[in-house]
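Bench notes, afternoon.
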Amino acid sequence: MSGILLVEDDDFLRATTKTVLEIAGYQVFAYADGKYALEAFPSILPDLVVSDINMPLLNGYGLLARIRELPAGEIVPFIFLSARSGRADVSSARELGADDYLFKPFEPDELLTAVRARLDRRRIAALFDTRDAHLQTIALLANIIEARDSYTRGHVERVQSYAIRLGQAMEWPLDDMVILEYGALLHDIGKIAIPEAVLNKPGPLTQEEFSIIQTHTTMGARIIEGIAHLRDALPYILYHHEKWDGSGYPEGLRGDLIPRQGRLLALADVFDALTSPRPYHEKVGSNEALQLIGRESGSHFDPQMTDAFIRGQPKGPKL
C-alpha cells in the first residue's frame, strides 16, 4: 500500500481529501501544517507528498525545499494543492521541483488521476533502479556459468533477446518485462552444479547423464529461492523445459498449468538451440528452425505464444 503525506491547514478539506485517498486504497498521514509534516517525514518515508501552499508555520514551498534537502526526500513526488492559480505561482512550484499542481476546488477524480500518475512514475523509476543495480551482476554470474559449457557461448544473451521480443509481442506489462530480462539470463544457472564431464560431453548423453542434466532446473531454483530480489525469476529457471503436452520436466506440467514464464522461455531457448551448433546436432537456419517450432505448436509449445514468436522473428538466415 502506497503511503501519502497530506498537508492541508483547512480542517474540512484535509478530512475530505484524506477520505478520498483512503477509499482509493492509499495509506494517508495527514497534518495541518508543513512544520509538523516535515518533522514526521523521516519516520513516515511516504511515497508521495500532497501539500497546500498557504500554511502559517511552514508553507508548501518551504516544505518542498526542506524535503528535497533530505536524502530520502530527493525523489519523492510532490503535488501542490492551492487556490493560487497565477502563472508565477505555478512557475515557483516547478522551479522548486514540484511534480504537479492542482487548483482548488478540484474534483476527486482529478486528484486521484494526478496521484496515480506520480506514483506510477516513481514505481517505474524504482523498478529501473533495481534493474540497473542487479543486471550487471546477474550477467556476470550467467557468463561464469556459461564459461563452463564450451558449446553454449552467448546462449543466455541470445535467449534473452528472443524472449524480450516475444514478451513485447505478447504485450506483457513493464514489471513483467523487467523480470523477464533477468530471468532469461539466469535460466541455466543450475548448470553450475552439473559435472563438467557431463556438461561438455562431445557425444550423445546416456540416459543417466541426461537425468543429471535435467536437474539443472531444480538446482537453479534452489540457488535462487533464497535470494529475495531474484525470486521472481524462479518460473523461468524451473519451468523452461516443460512441454505443452505434459512430456517435459521437471514436473511434467501440461498446458496452462505451466507458468507462462516457462512457456515463453521454452520457445526462445529451443530456437537458439536449433540455430546454434551443438555436439548432438548441426545448426539450422532461422527459417527452418521456425518451421520446426511451428510443427511443435500444441505439443511442445503454447500455440498462442508459438504464433506470436514465429510472426515476430525476422525471416532469413541467422547472421
